[in-house]
């Protein structure tokens, strides 16, 4: 996994956490869900890259 991929995945994870926290603070369920989705997307992409690395 390249450093650029790691940065992108971490960015998605952190942005998702921030959106989720903002949604919780404002009782905005839509923002919470959007944040959770973005965080999950980052986690899945990172896991996929780790699997690819394992087969190299």
Residue runs with pLDDT of under 50 for 5 or more positions: none
Topology, number of strands? 0
- Average pLDDT confidence is 91
Structural class: mainly alpha
Q: Provide the helix percentage.
A: over 70%
**Could you say which overall geometry the principal axes of the C-alpha atoms support?**
elongated
Largest sheet: none
- Evaluate the radius of gyration: 13 Å
Strand content: under 5%
Describe this structure in words.
The protein has one domain (3-54). It is mainly alpha-helical and 56 residues long. The model has no long low-confidence stretch (mean pLDDT 91). It contains two helices and no strands. The N and C termini lie close together (10 Å).
Question: What's the arrangement of secondary structure elements?
Answer:
Layout: H1 3-25, H2 29-54
Task: For the structure shown, list the relevant keywords.
56 residues; mainly alpha; 2 helices; 0% strand
Short description:
This protein has helices at 3-25, 29-54. The chain has 56 residues and is mostly helical.
């Amino acid at each position: 996994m390249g450093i650029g991929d790691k940065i992108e995945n971490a960015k998605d994870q952190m942005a998702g956490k921030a959106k989720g926290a903002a949604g919780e603070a404002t009782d905005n369920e839509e923002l919470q869900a959007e944040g959770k989705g973005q965080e999950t997307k980052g986690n899945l992409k990172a896991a996929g890259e780790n699997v690819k690395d394992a087969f190299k």
